[in-house]
Amino acid sequence: MSRRARSQVGSDPAMSPNLTPLLDVVLQLITFFMMLIHFGSKLEGESKAVRLPVAPAALPGGDLGLDRIVVAVDASGKLLVEGNSYDEAAAVPWWTQQAKTRREGQAAIGADSEKELPTLVVVRADKEVSYGAVRRLLGTAQDQGFARFTLVVLRGPNP
Asked: Could you report the per-residue pLDDT of 40-51, keeping only the tens digit for each?
């Protein structure tokens, strides 16, 4: 048998390239771009009715796994929550209902529901609203047992 005939007897006429390195590079690129791309600019509790103030030392929020309520205060001092608007008088029953719901949840897991609530209240107040309106809102929430608050501002350049 000739040399040429012997080499063709055991070989497959179609070549099969090794695709493992190619797939590895493609998956790494996908991962890289997923980490860099910001998918939209929708922030929790964002509303066009609220224009946040700018502060040079604004830091990102803390632990996102906590029980949280995100509320907004528009320029007229009204509480905006989940598409609803409440004036100061109408906000009191809303805070009462929120506290009751959270106390029932605390009681269900066996925690002390009479103490202050561990819920973090994230407040997004319009830059035009008076401090007094925000303070009254926080006071109403504190009367119902909420004690942990954070104010959201936009990070801006140093003046």
From this structure: 555 555 666 666
